[in-house]
Amino acid sequence: MLVRPGSLVSDNHLTLLDSGKEYFPELIRQINQAQTEIYFETYIFYPDEVGRTVMRALQQAASRGVYVHVITDWFGTGMRLCRLLRREFEKAGVHFRVFNPWFYRGLARQHRKVCVIDHQHAFVGGINILDDFRYDYSKKQRFLNAPRWDFAVLIEGPILNLIQQEVEAFWERVGHMPIRNRLRQYRTSFKRTFAIAKVSLAGFVVRDNFRNRRTIQRAYLRAMGRARREIVLATPYFSPGRKFRAALVSAAGRGVKVTLLIGIGEFWWQDAIAKSFFPKLLKNGVRIYEYRKTQLHGKVAVVDGVWATVGSSNCDGLSLFINHEANVVVRDTEFAATLCERIFSGVAEAEEIHLDDFNKIPWYRRFWYGAAHVIYRVVMRTVTWGDYN
């Protein structure tokens, strides 16, 4: 049976990891046990105490004869740190590549956070390599008041076959790959077959700018379109296209309880764009909460207590239409219940936005929200050749 990225494969074991406090110890443990091969992808690799610990584990694995491949993003990590990482990794025998330096491949960023070890364990999620207390962008304030809130999943099982092939193919594409080989790889990716059982549990969903331009958005739209009871969605940045927003409104109109938890306070312009959608969403019954305790960085959702997703893709134009992203999609009531409980713990600490309170905001601020969305929409439709919809 032909199984494309995103198809759900059975008999997997998945462990939800809440932020760096759970993710980094397990990541280090698995790297330290590696015997043959590691593929590691991240957007930000910052060499603070946490980053140095991960770096040493990868270097020590290479010294044991493990083939270690690391990809980081030129923009996310920064040019200076990419040079530092290259020197230190290559000195230890780690194969290191940087995605899209100087934007020579366009605006796309390598935003995936994936690690595959010995074809037996994989990590997929939204957690970058830096301390949970460290801001990942702001230069004015170096540390957060509370640990950054994020998620990842440790995966074992048949779905690793697909994840392994994807990370191997991405490693080749990031390198200097002849155009003939690149086209051959793309053709091959459409013909791959995997064993699939009758009961489906987990899938690996990627977004790129050739084979899988709308894969992650389609996964969301399909799940929200089939929702009958509840949609719970948490995202740091909320600026999706019209179809995504319409799916939330439609679900609420069917009587589905829709809860939207949004990060706030990181980028003023992103906050303004998100707020431009509030009136229509609130009028149609969507409950909106702003999370202000710390930086919300998790990109997660649960639908009807069965379908769940964890990954790197924000619900914004950059993630859904430009960047390289990776999510895991799960159909499992126990996993969904655990994730839903974690999300609602954040909802309990967030501030609910009511339509009456929103309407009391001064008119010039509400005008700015709308203007910010118009500008954003024009820019996104231009750079995505009309895909942002």
Report a brief summary of the structure.
This is Cardiolipin synthase B. The chain is of the alpha/beta class and 389 residues long.
Report on this structure.
Helices cover 41% and strands 22% of the residues. By secondary structure, it is an alpha/beta fold. It has two domains: 13-181, Endonuclease Chain A (Endonuclease, Chain A), CATH 3.30.870; 203-383, Endonuclease, Chain A (2-Layer Sandwich), CATH 3.30.870. An eight-stranded mixed beta sheet has the order 8-16-14-13-9-11-12-17, with helices on both faces. Strands 1-7-6-5-2-3-4 form a seven-stranded mixed beta sheet, sandwiched between helices.
Please render the helix and strand layout as text.
Layout lengths: L12 E6 H14 L4 E6 L6 H15 L3 E7 H4 L1 H13 L3 E5 L14 E4 L3 E5 L25 E6 L3 H15 L4 H13 L10 E6 L7 H12 L3 E6 L2 E2 L2 H12 L3 E7 L4 H9 L1 H6 L3 E5 L7 E5 L3 E5 L3 E2 H5 L3 E7 L1 H16 L2 E3 L1 H5 L3 H21 L6
Parallel strand pairs: 2-3, 3-4, 9-11, 10-15, 11-12
Antiparallel strand pairs: 1-7, 2-5, 5-6, 6-7, 8-16, 9-13, 12-17, 13-14, 14-16
Helix pairs in contact: 1-2, 7-8, 9-14
Distance between the ends: 32 Å
Would you count the extended β strands for me? 17
Annotated CATH homologous superfamily of the largest domain: Endonuclease Chain A
Query: In CATH's first tier, which class of the largest domain applies?
Result: Alpha Beta
The average pLDDT score comes to 91
The share of residues in helices is 40-55%
CATH fold description of the largest domain: Endonuclease, Chain A
Number of helices, counting only DSSP H or I runs of 4 residues or more: 14
Secondary structural class: alpha/beta
Q: Rough shape?
A: globular
Beta-strand residue percentage: 15-25%
Strand order of the largest sheet: 8-16-14-13-9-11-12-17
CATH architecture designation of the largest domain: 2-Layer Sandwich
Biggest beta-sheet profile = 8 strands, mixed
Instruction: Round the Cα radius of gyration to an integer and report it.
Output: 20 Å
Number of domains: 2
Which residues form runs of ≥5 with pLDDT under 50?
188-200
Family: Belongs to the phospholipase D family. Cardiolipin synthase subfamily. ClsB sub-subfamily.
Main location: membrane
Function: Catalyzes the phosphatidyl group transfer from one phosphatidylglycerol molecule to another to form cardiolipin (CL) (diphosphatidylglycerol) and glycerol.
Protein name: Cardiolipin synthase B
